[in-house]
Amino acid sequence: MELGTEEKAANKSSELVPSSMPKLGTRISVVCEAIGDRKTAASVAGVSTDSLQRYIRDEVQAPFVVLARLCAVSGHSLDWLATDEGPMRKPDGITDKSNHYHVAGRVKSSPDSDAYCYIPLYDVYASAGHGALIDNEQVIDRLPFKQEWLRGEMGLNPDDCCLINVTGDSMEPLLHKKDVAMLDRSQTHVIEDGIYCLRLDGSLLIKRIQRVTGQKLKVISDNSAYEAFALDNENNEHQQIIGRVVWVGKSL
Q: Where are the alpha helices (DSSP H) in 21-63?
C-alpha cells in the first residue's frame, strides 16, 4: 500500500534525526559518572537515589533545579544538559566532539581535589521540631562542593563546614524533613541574627535565633505552631551553639 504525502514526510523527517541522539536521561547519567557515583550525585541534586534513577531512565522529567545542582558540581554546561545544545563542558572543561559523550575522567573522590572539597555528612539528625537525640556522630558520606563556590561566593572555610540531616516540622516552610543542612562551625556564638544549630539538653535543634536586650537570645520557629523561647547567649554544659546554617539541600 502506497504511503500518503504526510506519512512520507514524517518518515523522511525521522530519517534526519540520528538514532544515537542522546536523551536527557543519558546526559544525566554522564554527569553522575563525572561526579563519582549515583548515590553522591543524588545527594548533590537533593533527591533520592530512586528518583535519580527514574530521571536517568527517562521515566520522569528531571526538574530544572536538579539539573542546575548537578552541573554546579560536575562542571558540565547547563545548556548542554538541559537542551543538548552547545559544548558539553564549561570553558575550562572538556568539549566532546565525537557525539559519544565520553567523559575523560571522574572527579576525585578524596579531599585532595584542587577543584572540589568534600564536606562530611554526619549520621546526626538535627530536629526542626521538639528535638532529636544524638545517637552517634559518625561520618556516613562526603559530598563534593566546588572550592570556588564555597570559598569565593559563600566565603566559607571548608574545614569549618559539615552536613547534617534535618527532621521535624517547626521550621517549615523553610526546612523540611530529609533536607540536608550545611553548618559553619566557626560561628559558635550568635553575633548576628540567623538560623543556627544548637545543642540543648542533649538534643540538636535548628532554629532562627535573634539577639535581644543584654545577653539574651530569642529562639524562634518559622512554624507558628511552635512557641518562641529565650536562652542566655553563652555556651555551657546544657546548651551550645554548634554552628550557623549557611546552605540547605532540599528534596523536591
A: 24-35, 38-45, 49-56
Q: What is the pLDDT of residue 127?
A: 61
**Assigned CATH class of 5-83:** mainly alpha
CATH of domain 116-249: 2.10.109.10
- Dist CA 177 CA 127 (whole Å): 9
Place of cell 572555610: 157
Phi, psi of 73 (to 5 degrees): -90, -40
Per residue in 188-240, pLDDT tens? 888 889 999 988 877 788 999 998 877 788 999 988 898 998 888 777 878 88
pTM above the 0.90 mark?
Answer: no
Residue with cell 536538579: 66
The answer to whether 180 and 169 are in contact (CB under 8 A) is no
Q: What is the pLDDT of residue 168?
A: 84
Could you report the per-residue pLDDT of 145-164, keeping only the tens digit for each?
888 889 888 999 998 999 98
For the stretch 68-83, pLDDT in tens is: 888 888 888 888 888 8
The closest of 73, 84, 86 to 115, measured between CA atoms, is 73
Report the first-to-last Cα separation within the chain, whole angstroms: 51
Which residue, chain included where needed, has cell 531512565? 57
The domains of the chain are located at 5-83, 116-249
Q: In this structure, how many other beta carbons lie within 10 angstroms of the beta carbon of residue 178?
A: 14
CA distance 250 to 177: 9
Q: Which of 167, 191, 239, 128 is nearest to 230 (CA)?
A: 239
| C-alpha triplet 81, 142, 162: angle, nearest 5° | 110
